[in-house]
Amino acid sequence: MSPGVQTVECEFTVQSELGLHARPAGRLASLAGRFESEISLGRGDEWVNGSSVLSILCLAASKGTALRVRAVGADAEEAVRELGLLIEAGEEEVPG
Questions:
Q1: Where are the alpha helices (DSSP H) in the chain?
Q2: 42/36 Cα distance (integer angstroms)
Q3: Percent of all residues in the chain with a pLDDT value above 90, rounded to a whole number
Q4: How many domains does the chain have?
Q5: Which of 55, 14, 60, 58 is nearest to 32 (CA)?
Q6: Which residue of 15, 21, 89, 96 has the fewest C-beta atoms within 10 A of its own C-beta?
Q7: CATH code assigned at 12
């Protein structure tokens, strides 16, 4: 592993009443794509690419679902923090 590369993983709970349907999944994928780090989202034993809307939707994360965010890269800590904030934001708290 090269210097400056780190792995950060944390668990967050989906707060949106509608869960991670298409709009919030799209926001998550878009946000994940802004980071240099490789982002994965996990539910149970299943891990998916954090920058793929369809993969995120396949997690079928309803309100109350615990999701793990894992980032590997130089900006991993920031990536996990920002994605976690989005996962835990209720739909009404997320700007359009």
A1: 22-33, 53-58, 76-88
A2: 19
A3: 86
A4: 1
A5: 55
A6: 96
A7: 3.30.1340.10
In whole angstroms, give the CA distance from residue 83 to residue 96. 16
The 10s digit of each residue's pLDDT in 44-90 is 999 999 999 999 999 999 999 999 999 999 999 999 999 999 999 97
What's the domain range around 82? Answer: 6-91
Residue 1: inside a domain: no
Q: Which of 21, 34, 81, 94 is catalytic?
A: 21
**Token code pair at residue 66:** 């615990």
**Does 81 participate in catalysis according to the annotation?**
no
**Beta-carbon count within 10 A of 44 CB:** 10
Q: Report the C-alpha dihedral over residues 58, 50, 45, 80, rounded to 10 degrees.
A: -140
